Each structure stands twice: as C-alpha cells, then as structure tokens.
TrEMBL record, chain A:
Residues 393-403 have a biased composition (Basic and acidic residues). This is Cyclin-like protein. Residues 53-75, 378-419 are annotated as: Disordered. Gene3D superfamilies: Cyclin-like (1.10.472.10). It holds the Pfam family Cyclin_C_2. Keywords: Cyclin. Belongs to the cyclin family. Cyclin C subfamily.
TrEMBL record, chain B:
This is RNA polymerase II transcription factor B subunit 3. It comes from Lojkania enalia. It comes from the Eukaryota. Gene3D superfamilies: Zinc/RING finger domain, C3HC4 (zinc finger). Keywords: Kinase, Metal-binding, Nucleus, Transferase, Zinc, Zinc-finger. It is found in: Nucleus.
Amino acid sequence: MRLTEDDLYRTSTQYKHWSFTPSQLAAQRRTTNIQASERVKAAVARQRAQRSLLDASASESERAGSGVENGGDTPVRVDKEVNCLTVTEEKRLVDVFCARALDLGKFLKFPTEVTATGIQFLRRFYLFNSPMTYEPQTISPCAMFVANKVENHGLPLERYVAVLPNMTTDKVLAPEYLLVQGLRFNFQVRHPFNGLKGGHLEMIEMARGNANLLPNAEKTKEQLQQEMLQLPRKPNGPAQSLSVAQLEKRIENAYGFASIVLKGPAQLTDAYFLYTPSQIWFTAHLLADEPLTLFYLSAKVPTSPIHSKIISTLRSCADLLSSHSSYTTDQISKEEKVAREKKEKEEVSALIKKAKHCRDPDKIDLVKLNLAQKRDAVAGGSLEESKAKRRKLEREGYQKESDDFWGPELKKANGAKVA
Amino acid sequence: MSKPAHRAGGAPKAAVDSDICPVCKSSRYLNPNMKFLVNPECYHKMCESCVDRIFSHGPAPCPIAGCKRTLRKMRFREQTFEDLKVEREVDIRRRVAKVFNKREEDFETLKDYNDYLETVEEVTWNLILKIDVEATERRLRQFEEAQKAELNPNVARRETQSDSSAPSDASRVVLKKGATQRKALSASSGNTPNPYSSQDGTEDTGFTFRGLKKRTAPEPQKPFDPYSGWSVEPQFYILQDDYNVEWLTQSKNDIQHLAGGYNIKDFYSQALCEAFSGFGVFIEDEIVARDRQVSGDETLATQMAATAGTGAKDVRMDDVF
Ligand SMILES: [Zn+2]
Ligand SMILES: [Zn+2]
C-alpha cells in the first residue's frame, strides 16, 4: 500500500473541509450573508418592539419620570430599515482585518507560520459566520492567540494581553470556544513556506548538477545543469550563459521574492481555499522567475497530460495573487501609492462605520455572553443574584455531603506555595 | 495391583486392614491423624510417615514385599477413589486422553473419527489390563512427539540434529527413565531392531489414523509494523542525502540541535514532501467530483436554510451563544 505526496495531502482537514471551488466559495458567502442579515433584522425588530412597549408603559404609569432606561447600549436607535452589509462588503471587511492581523503579527514578532495560521483561522471562521454577527475586532485577537497556541509559539496570555492596547484576558478568551467551533476543531493549516524551502533546495542542487533525477527523466544531470545556465531572464527572452554562482544567486533572488508573495498576497486572498500549498508556492515562484520555475516544472513533470493542467492551475493562481493590492505596491509611483492608501483608508472607515450600524444586537458583548454560560453568572443584575445565592448554597450542600462520605479534602502542607 | 481385590474378603476385615499401615504396622487407633498415600507407579498404600522416612533422601524401591518398583516421594498422593482399580484406570485414561486429543472436526469423516475412538479405547484397555505395555507406551510417546513436531517443525528439526549420535527413538525416551532401567533397556534394545520403526526410512509416528487432517503450524508472528503496511512513495522527487545551502549550515552544525536528537534529514524529507504534497491535486475537479459523490442532500439542506433565513441557527454548526 503506497501513498504519494498527493494522497498525504488528501488526508488533511484542509483538503477535506476547507477546500472549495470559486463558485462554492461564493455560494457559501452568500448563504452566510443571507442568514446573518435575516437574523440581524429579526433581532433588531424584536428589540424595537420591546422598547416601544417599555416606552408606552413608562409614559402611562410614570409620566413624571424622565430617565427611563430604554436599552442604553443598543446601537440602533434610529427607527429605519437596517442597512445590512452586502457579500462584497463583508469580504472586504474580513480582508481588511486579515491585513491588520498581518501587521499585528509583525508587531508581536510572531514567526510567519503563526501569523499565517491566525489569518487563515479568521478567513475560515468568516466563511461560515458574518462580521455582522461577530465583530472582527473581537474575533481577530482571539484568532491570533489561538494560532499562537496551535503553532507552538507559546506566548503566554498575560504577555500577549499586556502588549496590546485596551485588551483584557477576558476579551481574548471569550470568543475562543466560538472560534474553535467555527473552525470545526480543525487546527492544522498547511502552509506553503516549508514547501518553498524544499523546492529551493532542489533547484540549488540542480544548478550544481547533482540533483537526484526521477526514474522517468529524459535528461542527465549535466544536461539539466547546462540548460539551466542558459535560461533566459524573461519569458521568450534571449538565452543567457550564467556561471553556476550567478545561477545560484538568481535562484536565491527568486526565493526571496516568492517568500514575500507567500507572506503577503497569498495570505490576504482566497488562495488557501482554492489551491493546495504546493501549487501556491509554485505560483509564487512563477511570479518571481517564470523561466526558471517552468524549467524546474518540466524537469519534474515531463510533458505528461498533467503538465499542462498544472500550468493552467498555476496561471490562474498567479492571476489571483498578483491581483491583490499588496502585490503591486512597489511598482507604482509614490504619489499614486499615497493617494491609493488614502482612498482605501476612507473606504475602510466608512465600511467599519456601516458595519457598526448593522451589528447583531444579541451578540455584541461576547464577554458577558461567555460569562453567562458559566456558573455563578450574574448577568441580569439583582434579579439573578438570589438564583446565584441559591446555587452557591446548593453547591456547598453537595460539598458537605461528599465530605461526610469521602472525608474532607487533604490539608495542604503549611508554607506550600500555590503557584 | 490385584492385592486389594484379594484382601477385600469381608467388610470388618477391610476396615481394619485400611487402618493399619502395611509397612510400619502402626494403626489409626493410636494415631487418629494418620494419612495413607499411594504412588501411581504401583498403587501400594502406606502411611505418610513411612513415605517421609523411606523416600525423603531420593528415589527408593517400594517397601511392599514382592514389588521392586522405584518410587519418588514427589508422586505420592492421597487416593481419590476408594477402589484403587478405579484410581488407576482414571489415571491411565487421563494420560491417554492427553495424547489422543483429536476431535471430530479433525477428521475427514465420521467413520474415521469412530475408528480413531476405537483405537484409543483399545490402547487404553491394553494399558489398564497390562497387555503389551512396553510397546504401547512407546507408541504413545512416539505419537505425542509426532504431534508436537507437526505443530512446531523447528523444534523437531533441532531435536533430530542434536540426536544425531542417538538415532533411535527408543533411546531418547530412555533418557528420561531411572539410571538402572536405562542400563537394562539399552542392553536389551542394543542390537534388536525396533519393530515399530518403518523400513522405508520415514519417521515412525507410533499411530497412523486414516482421515486425520494434517495440522498446520500457525504463522510465526511478524515484527510489528506501526504503519500496518502503508508507506510513502514520493512521485515527484527523490530525496538526497544532503543539501548544501548557506542558510542551513548553521542549524546543521548547531550543537543544541544535535544534542536534542534533531536530524537535518528530517527537515529535508519534510520540506521536500511539503513541496509536492498536493501538487497534483486539482481542487476544482476533485472537490466537485467528491461532493457529487456525497450526494445532493447537503447542498439541498443549505439551500433550504438560506431560504428559511430566520432559521437563526446555522445548519453546519450550533452557535455557542
Ligand atoms: Zn507406615
Ligand atoms: Zn509397590
């Protein structure tokens, strides 16, 4: 029973649950959007009905009373139809917060994998949940923290919270279970970074003329090396004759550029949903040095039917990656860049403002909701207090009962430190 | 063996007889705790203290007049049945049943099985009635050895190799017997050919039964394979022993990495595997094909949920809040 590398990938959750065709992806986003907006509208309508009821009774019973509490923390006060986010706006919002997460990772000096995993968690979560229901502002610190744990980086929560402004441990932990469930407990994200390193190693060896060849290879090592030295710089360009050292330099440059693409555009687009990590790093390398990558590819898959298929897949992935705004930033003039950034900033702040107005009122305070799920929750103020007291008494009763039966808890030795 | 039968003349005499040790003549009347023991070699009764006295220093001949069998203390025991004849028969039957442990399903036909049972009964009665005991015993032992050899051919081979100096089957059996008997037997069977060893050179198994299915030894256990037969065979690359790039030299020679048991080759194999893992997986084709296989139920469910809209709960997962 033999497995190929592809079979290994097919066993991953990334392939099983988090790979989609473009149309599936769009359909899922549409579904999520419809469900979320219906929910928001229903919740807002319910709240308004409640408030008008309250207002009516208040005005009748205590006409003198001026300061009636009428849902002070509800964001929707204007009685007009809720203007929900569209699918495109939702996606844009998520993209914005993914970009911010990237900056957050840089700020925290997280390794590339940690940041990338956090971003993918966000993208996966918002595929089935709408930013209208759960604000990205609250989810993204949590996603980064979970990624930090998943990728074994091990930054403690206290230090993590201390670094971020306006952050408490509760705020980070409150959406944790929600997020993890939204990820369907699939924690592993397969990244293209290591694959790029592997490909780079092989290309270097090939340039030196001692790469191991596949059994069905048509050329010898030396032939490969010679052809590689003569590769044109640009597609359809004139042939070159580089020295081995120059060729190695070229491969290293390509690696550097490709890894920038992987850390930026590859993270901020849907690439992970639509392509496999192996195809993504190949694409990044293709964008970096096309003749070199195509040559390497043909050495691997010499003109079999899958060769053309791979090329077309890589091309479409390349279109996706190069279409992202972060890909082209260094190719345009400075004024243009500034203007574009300014325009983007305005758009984004308008979008966030709009998102604020169509928040699901039931899901605003996640910390409180999370607390309410736990025991001794005093969510409703004084009314709940008697309940909490009763629960506490009950618990003490159980404790006493079990102590009578099993004997009391062992006393800790004096002076033993409780960490 | 016939003695107890002879003595059982009358009830009162038998009662008195069983209360007096035939060796030391002490009676139970004086020692209520006295216990009588027998040895399955000759089934002569004697009291516990006599056994201790006579056999504590090793095997000794039976003290009963006319019986010269060598007895060992270890094999003395209390008798289970009042009648020593029954006691002996039970012992013999147990021993024979241990060797002839075939069942009906071991035979081709029912008739073969019945023939086998017939033979077994014949052997048993030969032993009980002391007809042809020597030969029967030997055949029994040969059969037992043959059975063992059939189950475990390695043991048989090992034994025949070590026994090359003593080729006859009988002499091997003799080794287990007492020294005096061994001498006597080797003297007697020294030059007489074994009547049961077959002439054509094939090994004599004591008994042969028609229709007895050949037993096959169970397969020897294979070394444990944690991957239960699965292996990874890359199709796009062949791993090299070493890759020389600048950015790896530091970790390659890092004493901390080495001390921790980190092997740079693991990095190579992982990096190369990840480089091509999913290379030939075309999501667009495969996912569609897969989903079509899963059947349309799921897509239908999501469509319904989308139209239902206010259905509040997600279809795919419960909302925790
Ligand atoms: Zn005695
Ligand atoms: Zn005796």
